[in-house]
Amino acid sequence: MEPIQPLGCGCQGQEGKDSRPPMGRFAFILPAALLLWYPLYRQLGPFADFVAYSLLGLGRGTHSGEAMRFFAYDAPKVMLLLTLVVFVIGIIRSFFTQERTRKYLAGRRETLGNVMAALLGIVTPFCSCSAVPLFLGFVQAGVPLGVTFSFLIAAPMVNEVALVLLYGLLGWRVAALYLVTGLLIAMVAGWIIGRMHLEGWIEDWVRELRRCEALVIEEKPDWRARLMRGWEAVRDIVGKVWIYVIAGIGVGALIHGYVPESFMAAVMGRDAWWSVPAAVLVGIPMYSNAAGIVPVVEALLGKGAALGTVLAFMMSVIALSLPEMVILRKVLKPRLIALFITVVGAGILCTGYLFNAVIHL
After folding, report:
1. 260: closest CA among 303, 299, 295, 305?
2. What is the C-alpha separation between 148 and 120, in angstroms, rounded?
3. Where in the chain are the domains?
4. 299: which of 38, 170, 256, 314 fits an S-S bond (Cβ 3.0–4.6 Å)?
5. Helical axes 172-195 vs 160-170, angle rounded to 10°
6. Angle (CA) 321 323 328, round 5°
7. Is residue 157 a contact partner of residue 347, using CB atoms and an 8 Å limit?
């Protein structure tokens, strides 16, 4: 097996290729874009009505009319929210490099480390392709296995895109529930795995890596550079996920316009005891991200699906996705991956059943 560099991943831009706009032009574009953002956001409702009922001539209350209005409203709304939050988080991430994250977590006791790892997972750069480099970097830095798993669970599950889109589409209550439960799952699952002392279930070549502290020059960017990083995050992330956003909104529009409420309530309602495990099983093999799955969540809830069932489905899609498990197989033995899925899946199931029992939207 070829060695894998412990830090860095293909997600980051390649050095030497500066496609950033000149700072003078960027200094003009940024304030203008921020001034236009709110008026555009406020006009989304009338715009959706115009597209569905005036421009396309679809009837109000019809399946096609309601589906098109859902799409015409949610597509620009999600893209506006996504662009703004990615820009802001891109600036925040300039304070949390992967190397700095390793140093924060190295040597921490497990309980405190699990909490810190889960919280850092929200704001630090992470994607599926960086799972292996991050894991190797944590091993080399002496970060405990359980703490590492808390980070690996929280980073994809409780990400800033999901939180802002949930807040914008479904309100602060659902976003807060998602944040709290996601963090609890990451902390508890990492703590359980850490207490079992399963370092022997890591691939042998990973355990043989010697701890080394490479000389790292800590970068201290100024605010010009931080703003440019926000722009780069928008260009990189939005440029990659917009197709999933449109696809997710398209699925949500079809559900909103054509799926009867009685059917969705029967399949994903709180009265069907099997709905939560079924939602998890359906979500695991799917490949999507938070930006693409949140519009589907909105449509499912609007059609009468139970909150706990829908959150369980969403969490399984973005925290237990099959592609990420395939990537982690490079460094973890199959039994540790199976345990990881079992522990996280149990936490998601408990979340689904708990919310179905006590929360009624």
Report:
1. 303
2. 11
3. 23-358
4. 256
5. 150
6. 100
7. no
What is the rounded distance in angstroms from the CA atom of residue 73 to the CA atom of residue 44? 6
**Which phi and psi (to 5°) does residue 202 adopt?**
-85, 150
**Residue 301: half-sphere exposure toward Cβ, Cα within 13 Å:** 22
Distance (Å, rounded) from C-alpha 35 to C-alpha 45?
19
Q: Give pLDDT tens digits for 27-50.
A: 667 777 778 888 888 888 899 999
Residue 131 identity:
A
Here the tokens at position 247 are 């696809």
Q: For residue 349, what are its two tokens?
A: 């199931």
Q: Do residues 242 and 307 make contact, with C-beta atoms less than 8 angstroms apart?
A: no
Q: Are 316 and 354 in contact (CB under 8 A)?
A: no
pLDDT single digits (tens) 239-272 = 776 787 788 788 878 887 777 767 766 777 777 7
Structure tokens at 168: 């914008």
**CA distance linking residue 314 with residue 301, whole number of Å:** 12
The token pair that represents 228 in the structure block: 């440019």
